[in-house]
Write a structure and sequence with these properties.
Elements lengths: L9 H8 L6 H24 L7 H24 L4 H24 L11 H18 L1 H53 L3 E7 L5 E7 L4 E4 L7 H14 L35 E7 L5 E7 L4 E4 L7 H15 L3 E4 L3 E7 L5 E7 L4 E4 L7 H14 L6 E4 L5 E6 L5 E4 L7 H14 L4 E4 L3 E7 L5 E7 L4 E4 L7 H15 L4 E3 L1
Parallel strand pairs: 4-18, 7-15, 8-14
Antiparallel strand pairs: 1-2, 2-3, 4-5, 5-6, 8-9, 9-10, 11-12, 12-13, 15-16, 16-17
Helix pairs in contact: 1-2, 2-3, 3-4, 3-5, 4-5
Pfam families: CdpA_N (PF23600), DUF1508 (PF07411)
InterPro entries: CdpA_N, DUF1508, UPF0339_domain, YegP-like_sf
Keywords: Coiled coil, Membrane, Transmembrane, Transmembrane helix
Length: 501
């Protein structure tokens, strides 16, 4: 910050002639330096014609000594040093002034031409030394303390930064959890069906829940005399269906009186016990696997892959327990778009054939589910007439990609092929399956029902990141048998104990 002063002051002279000083000492130091230079020049000019014991010689020595001291003190005063250093400079100038006054008192009677006066010279040297100490020693001594203070301040700053980083990570974790919860709520609210309210031939109002594929998922079961009552029945189903339990009624007695319905339990008194056990074992290759074994000896599900440690296998079991129960069905007939959320919280899509192969994927993530859904609609609209780009990548594999009009890649093969013809065949498969493919929303995990190359129906539980975390291990001749197997996993996986062999 510049220092203002009256126009007649020393600082005002410095400001007019040189520039605005940052401090008053900057102006004072410069003026002291100039004064010392002038006194030194005058002293040397008077020294040359003077006699050894004359008054001119006395004046020249006094002016030269004063000029030398001021020449040293001026730059030191001008520097932005600590207050102690500046004070030392002023003390040194006082000592030099005292030496010069002493010199005028002893010259020429006690002044030796060859050796001078030891007291005067010693006092002057001490003054010069104090000025030098203020310029050099004081900053060096105090810099150690300043360095320690700086180190302590840096340590505090690092600790503060670490705490801020921890807070940022905690906030990001909370935001991720919030986004995942929002995704789950969004998945719950997103339906593949709609309610239809209609009037039957008898003039009564009924409702039915129709899936997008045309199947009737549920209906009112009875008619209502007023449309308002039918709407209330629909609202009741919406409120109560999501959290409703399941009552397995093996034998039902005939109920002749409606009042007898009060004697039937709406929900079981306790949750159904698991009829299966998870077994963790080490295979012949030294990898750890798990299987879900029913108490009748049948293997209900298995890991499908090996794990490097028992701990990883047990973690996989925890994933199955958490995801099998709420897992939804994905049926590919013969291919469908999967809308899912990756580990980074972005929405993505992929075109999956019923044999499990990924025919295409979007290649980029979206911040909102509807943006990913809109991307699949765009691909379906233009896939039949679009020009696919088949190219060879850096690894020597052939891939394909589909670009939008703006040049952005909206779809790609997701994997490489050994020859150009294989990549072109993959493009034709996408052209054939994409236009009629349904879009299926995936939560954290979903059951996939598919037909293998042998004509058998199978299931697998796929996480939204694409990993298969469980499969049935066996095929079924009928699709309905696969559904029964999945329901068995849903009933038994969550509460099944874990046994380690």
């Amino acid at each position: 910050m510049s220092v203002s002063d009256d126009s007649g002051g020393l600082v005002g002279v410095y400001e007019r002639q040189i520039g605005s000083p940052q401090t008053a000492d900057e102006a004072y130091g410069y003026l002291v330096f100039v004064l010392g230079l002038l006194l030194g020049i005058v002293g040397m000019a008077l020294f040359l014609p003077s006699e050894s014991a004359g008054s001119t010689r006395e004046l020249s020595i006094a002016l030269g000594a004063a000029g030398f001291a001021l020449l040293i003190a001026g730059p030191v005063i001008r520097l932005p040093l600590q207050r102690l250093a500046t004070l030392a400079v002023y003390v040194g100038l006082v000592l030099c002034t005292a030496a010069i006054v002493w010199f005028t008192m002893v010259f020429p009677s006690e002044w030796q031409v060859a050796t001078g006066h030891q007291g005067v010279i010693s006092l002057y040297i001490v003054g010069i030394a104090v000025i030098a100490a203020g310029a050099v020693l004081v900053p060096l001594v105090t810099s150690t303390r300043s360095a320690a203070e700086t180190t302590a301040a840096e340590t505090r700053a690092e600790e503060t930064e670490m705490r801020l980083e921890e807070e940022r990570k905690a906030r990001e974790a909370a935001e991720t959890a919030r986004d995942e919860l929002a995704g789950e709520l969004d998945a719950i609210r997103t339906s593949q069906a709609q309610f239809e309210l209609f009037e039957d031939k008898a003039g009564q109002y009924r409702w039915r829940l129709r899936h997008r594929n045309g199947n009737i998922v549920a209906d009112s079961g009875e008619g209502y005399t007023r449309k308002h009552n039918a709407q209330k029945g629909m609202q009741s189903v919406r409120r109560n269906a999501l959290g409703a339990g399941t009552l397995h009624a093996d034998e039902l007695e005939d109920v002749s009186d409606e009042a007898d319905l009060d004697d039937l339990p709406l929900l079981p008194a306790e949750a159904e016990d698991s009829q299966a056990t998870f077994e963790v074992y080490e295979d012949n290759a030294g990898e750890y696997r798990w299987r879900l074994v029913h108490r009748n000896g049948n293997i209900v599900a298995d890991s499908g892959e090996g794990y490097s440690s028992r701990h990883n296998a047990e973690r996989a079991i925890d994933g199955v327990k958490a995801n099998a129960g709420p897992g939804s069905y994905l049926q590919f007939d013969p291919a469908s778009f999967e809308i899912y959320r990756d580990v980074a919280g972005e929405w993505r899509w992929r075109l999956v054939h019923r044999n499990g192969n990924i025919l295409a994927d979007g290649g980029q993530g979206y911040s909102r589910r509807r943006d990913a859904r809109r991307a699949t609609d765009s691909v379906q609209d233009r896939v039949t007439e679009a020009d696919f780009d088949v190219y060879e990548d850096d690894a020597g594999e052939y891939r394909w990609r589909l670009r939008a009009e703006n040049g952005n890649v909206v779809a790609d093969s997701g994997e490489g092929y050994s020859s150009r013809s294989e990549a072109e065949n993959a493009v034709e498969r996408v052209r054939g399956h994409a236009p009629d493919a349904d879009a299926l929303d995936v939560g954290f995990a979903a059951f996939e029902v598919y037909e293998d190359s042998g004509g058998e129906w199978r299931w697998r539980l796929r996480h939204r990141n694409g990993n298969i975390i469980a499969d049935g291990g066996q095929g079924y001749s009928e699709r309905s048998s696969v559904h029964d197997a999945i329901e068995g996993v849903k009933r038994n996986a969550a509460g099944a104990p874990v046994e380690v062999e």
